[in-house]
Amino acid sequence: MPANFLSTLTGSFAMPAAENPTVAMVEAAYRHHGLNWRYINCEVSPKLLADAVRGAWAMGWAGFNCSIPHKVAVIQHLDGLGESAGIIGAVNTVVRRGNGFIGENTDGKGFVHALREVIDPEGKSVMIFGAGGAARAVSVELALAGARSIILVNRSQETGRALVNLLNSRTGTSAEFHPWDRTVKVPPETEIVINATSIGLYPDIDGRLDLDLGSLTPAMVVADGIHNPPRTHLIRSAEARGCRVVDGLGMLVNQGVIGIKYWTGVDVDAGVMRRTLAEIFQT
Ligand code: NDP
Fold first, then answer.
1. Could you tell me the distance, in angstroms and rounded to a whole number, from the CA of residue 225 to the centre of ligand 1?
2. Rounded to 5 degrees, what angle do the CA atoms 41, 66, 37 make?
3. For site-directed labelling of 231, which of 66, 80, 169, 238 has its Cα 20 to 30 A away?
4. 3-state secondary structure 163-228
């Protein structure tokens, strides 16, 4: 059955479809698998979000992605939430299930999926830099995947402490806040180190975390949520110190793989999607 997806993008995030990496990535998977589906990019202003969701429902769309600034606002227009989306309080993927649109958050799920190719987070001690939307999604999903402990490092204490409280009250992990007011040393017992800040994102590709790189050891896995460019300063530095690394392309590709599975029921080839993105971001 042919179907459409709505990708809600606004303002500076809006790009012609051919240049939008997510559109290119998802459509590449559809072509590869001969799926008669379409993923299109629509710019929706915040005041028309309710109309857009109703329109998607009326037109029989199987679902849609939403990006900033709709990730929280869309919830009031949906019929239910998946477990992690309910805890995170943000939705990036909407799925038609039965008689309603259900909100999911695949950012953190995509991250954990990519991480699992290198290390299973269950029972591990984790240090996460950042407390924004990406950190929220990643930390909740890691906690639900059984991470033993999470040290959350953030510049703004208020957001950092709020996320730590959320993790401690709504998940089984043991979370602790660490203020980021000086160079941070990663404790030697840490097994997974994650950058979930926007530091290093294009065009500020020389952005560096205020982190003592000498505290990274080869026993640690270092992951970065930044996908453009995929080989961030952190990823290159961690590799040079013998760490195993997970770049941000894995998170982006896998959130797409999970979204397509929700919508179409098909497990698509992540490699095709990753190669499409790698060409766009010229890794
Ligand atoms: P937010 O704006 O919600 O959060 C940004 C975070 O980065 C905050 O914790 C902020 O700290 C911190 N930060 C920014 N600049 C600095 C700085 N100079 N020094 C210290 N901390 C800083 O953004 P998101 O969480 O939504 O996104 C973060 C990144 O994650 C994006 O750049 C995006 O590329 C990536 N992302 C990747 C995805 C993927 O699929 N690979 C999916 C979603 C996001 P403070 O609270 O103090 O301001």
1. 9
2. 50
3. 66
4. HHHHHHHHCCCEEEEEECCCCECCCCCCCEEEECCCCCCCCCCCCCCCECHHHCCCCCEEEECCCC
Nearest to 241 by CA among 203, 214, 275: 214
- Mark whether 109 is an active-site residue: no
Residue nearest to atom 12 of ligand 1 (CA): 197
- pLDDT tens digit sequence for 101-117: 999 999 999 999 999 99
Confidence of residue 5 (pLDDT cuts 50, 70, 90): very low
Q: Is the pLDDT of residue 165 over 90?
A: yes
How far is residue 40's CA from residue 38's CA, in Å, rounded to a whole number? 6
User: Which residues lie with the beta carbon below 6 Å from any ligand 1 atom?
Assistant: 107, 110, 130-135, 154-156, 159, 196-199, 201, 225-227, 248, 251-252, 255
- Look up the CATH architecture of domain 17-104+250-281: 3-Layer(aba) Sandwich (3.40)
pLDDT, tens digit, for every residue of 173-227?
999 999 999 999 999 999 999 999 999 999 998 899 999 999 999 999 999 999 9
CB 107, CB 255: distance < 8 Å: yes
Atom of ligand 1 nearest to the CA of 198: 32
The reply to whether 109-246 shares the fold of 17-104+250-281 is: yes
Element (H, E) at 150: strand 149-154
Distance of alpha carbon 228 from the chain centroid: 13
Out of 198, 226, 280, give the residue to mutate to test ligand 1, the one with the largest number of ligand atoms within 8 Å of its CB: 198
